[in-house]
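Blackboard transcription, Thursday session:
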Amino acid sequence: MLFELLTAKYPGMRLWLTQRLCALSMVAGLLLFCMRVLWLAPHDYAGWVAVFAPWWWRLLSVWFFICMLLHAWLGVRDVLRDYVPHLGIRVVLQWVVNLAVCGNALAVVWILFAMKF
Amino acid sequence: MIVKKPKKQRPKNLNLFTIRLPVNAVVSIMHRASGVVLFLIQPLMLWALYLSLRNEQGYSTVSMQLQQWPVKLLLTGLAWAFFHHFYAGLRHLAMDVHWMTTLQKARFSSRVVLGLVVATMLFVIFAIWK
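(Written on the board underneath:)
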């Protein structure tokens, strides 16, 4: 039963579970970030760069931000569905949100993987 | 055959000034509102991350901006949005696994969420404005 809920027959359940897993991922990520900041105690630019510099930390950060964007995208999607009854307006707003989320995702990947620091 | 039931004449009140939400509903709607706030602030947050990591100058710009009182005010509001969303979200996750789902327990956990938000915000306000 539980696994059936996660098959293509119930697409809403998969989105629901995705949002919850992203939430749990972010809780773990935030705890890690707090521990890392407390451990390294950055107080200037060099210290701040040292927090984000290791490749594994960049990877974890991108994972965190992708979870954040997915979680937010699913949440805003529900909000629009609940509060914007006019289909045309909702479709336009949803596209604006989709573009914003994609733009943010590109920014995240660029900052953490392509930018030199 | 579908029998149409006669429409019941029930009193209806949708006046927002006289509707009083129960505490669970308050926590729930604020979870949504804070989520929307956090969504809207994402580009600014990423911009701050970008500036602070790009070079020495960007880093000092961000840390100088964080000393300005309007930014501190914004930060305080965002901290509220974050911590409310965080605690209320944990509560929703608990309910997803069928924990604390009776009305009485849900009311209790709502009050716990509000209490935790207030307690954390006292700490955050002290940290930001000291």
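Lecturer's comment: The radius of gyration of chain B is 21 Å.
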